[in-house]
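Lest this sound abstract, we think one record worth quoting, the chain in one-letter code, the fold tokenised, each line plainly labelled:

>
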Amino acid sequence: MSFICVPVLDNKEIVGTLSINKIYNGDVAFSEDAGVLSICGAIIAQAVRIRQEYLEEILQLREANKKLYVEIREGCGHRIWSETQVKCAICSI
């Protein structure tokens, strides 16, 4: 039984590890298995980074939306608008 572990790198920073237990097979070199794991690790790191960037953008957009909602409410003589009315007001601009 062989244990192979490679780092998952994102911009030269270790963000995790990827490992397997494998029954020893003399036909496949250790470096080939490690190479495949490294490629998988790079794909995983890229997917995680893209998802993290997406989530951060969503949070920023939600905060901006809250601020705009408050500005619209305050700019209309403190009239209380429903979210639907605010959306309609924004669409008509």
The radius of gyration is 25 Å. The mean pLDDT is 83.
